[in-house]
Amino acid sequence: MDFTEFAHELLGNNLIAGFLAAFAIAACAGLAKRLSIPSPLLLVALGVAVSFFLGGDAPEFPPALILQGVLPPLLYSAAVSMPAMDFRRDFTAISGLSVVLVALTAVVVGLGLHWLLGLAGLEVPIAICIAVGAILSPTDAVAVGIVERLGSPHRLVTILEGEALINDATALAVMTTALAAGGVVSETEVPGFLADNLPWLTPGATVTAPWIAERFAWLVVTAVVVGAVVGRLGLWISSKVREPALGILVTFLISFAAYIPAEHLGGSGLVAAVVAGLINGQGGPKHVSAANRIAQGHTWETVEFLLEGAVFLIMGLQVKHLIDVRDQRASGLAIVGVALGAGLMVLLVRLIFVAPLVELLQAKAKRLAKKQQKAMQAAAAGFGRQARVAQLHAELAARRAGGGGVTREAGSVGSAGSGGSAGSAGTAGQATRALRRVRRLVGDVDYLAARPFGWREGSVLVWAGMRGVVTLAGAQALPETLWEDGPALPFRASLILVAFIVAATSLIVQAGTLPMLLRWAHLTGHDPVAEAVARDKLQRRLARAARTYLLDPDLRRSTGEPFGDQAVATVFDVLSVTPTAPADEADEALTRSEAVELTEEQLAHRADQAEMWELRLGAVRAMRMALLAARSEGTYDSELLKEALEELDADEISIELRHDDGAASPG
Length: 667
What we know:
Blueprint: H1 3-12, H2 14-35, H3 39-54, H4 63-67, H5 71-81, H6 84-89, H7 91-119, H8 126-135, H9 142-149, H10 154-181, H11 192-197, H12 209-240, H13 244-264, H14 269-287, H15 290-317, H16 319-325, H17 332-403, H18 408-450, H19 455-463, H20 469-476, H21 492-521, H22 528-550, H23 565-575, H24 600-604, H25 609-633, H26 638-664
Helix pairs in contact: 2-3, 2-15, 3-15, 5-13, 5-14, 7-8, 7-10, 7-17, 8-10, 9-10, 9-21, 10-12, 10-14, 12-13, 12-14, 13-14, 13-15, 16-21, 17-18, 17-19, 17-21, 19-21, 20-21, 22-25, 23-25, 25-26
């Protein structure tokens, strides 16, 4: 048996092939780090080499493997780690890039592709060309990793990540809508009960602008509703799970639990998975235990690493098969020319779209600054009314206490005060809401001011929009026939080959030169001084929350007994929380004088361990609630909040482990 036959036999065994693929992914990742190049490029090159080495025996992978088996968990995991606060702040840019730009690219590139294919001698219907244009429109998430690893501005990374989260689903939705408009998709792909009740969902119906809008709206709205319901349900289940292994399994199931019903109802399963991920990412720190979240995070990192590597390896393995089955009526040189022209059009459309988007983002920052000033004035007026009502109540209480009865004058004031009681509650509520709005606006304005988005960021945003595996998977998802039992889709193999060349060229050229562009643009993602100031401010806020918790006179143990003062003093010392307020904050009256000073001998004589662990755990959880409140206000950077949350989680797990060990040990 020669080496070639031995290699065929090895790769023919699924178990051995899977092991070799995992080993190749790990090896390429290590080699790419040494060579300072993106690992997807090495994986695609390796896949191409293996496909030509195996020849006709190269494995073929159904598109459903990626679209249904890989993308839902990958997008769900990315959505979980996406800061919802930053997603909201740049929703204008993210939605424009992931929805408007995708639709615009599909139409423009589709029309241009129809013309280029005609020059190459391939007459392809316009509807199919627009579907291929939609396939070429989504960017690949690999750019996010490259930009982030090179220390780029956090806002640029957020916009790219948000775009990659949604544009895959948008592109596939536009593709299916275009194919349906051309009567290409079989009616069996739409659930029967929906086709009966919602005739505009049925492919081959009269194609009008309202028909397209209604179909696309159904895809999105259905996905959002299903994703929200599944996300909330999954979060509730995760909050009840105590075993980390079971919690990990639940998170795996959530992505598919959102994807499957959304697709069955005619919606976008990928959008549903993203929505479910955003909900679990936002609510996880509040409802899911720290141990479970850390275990899930580490597991998902490994899963993402393997899945992302696998899809690029699969992408390269398809090359030989695509070349073999392409339509011979067009030369290989013509196909390459069509692909390069399509890739250039994709890039030009993105450039034309991003240029005004940068201006829009700058105008938004100025508009928010003006809105902030008006909100602060309104809030100040609201607080003034609240102070006047409170003064009336104080005067009335003083008169009642001093006169033994209520005089007519006092009664009149009291009437006003009584009426003002309800009014004061309303005024206080208005003032609180105004304060919340002001805090959020201040956070938004500070975020946009500290991270301006100019032409340098815009140039990186354009060049980082490379295509990848979703483009190839979407192309392979093109139906083989125009309709059920109908003629074959014209030039399908050539269209898939065009999509592959666009994606491969984009990865090689743009991913290979993106580091140079980032260095040329002199973009930096960190301001050490500002980060240090913000970190100190956040630590003060968390320390204040711990101090408030520890000095609460009504604080009780789980058994209902009060905590001992020595235990409180010990936790003050362990957490390094000063019992008195900082100089720049209001003075706080201590309710436990023993917490102020203790001798070393007293501190050495620790309180009951179980009592101290319970108190420390409560203090850490109080700090976490303060951190989540700060997150909802948007006054701190999401990366800083993430680091602080990880530290609190580590502290909580350490306390729980030591508590369990202490309880298990004798004596």
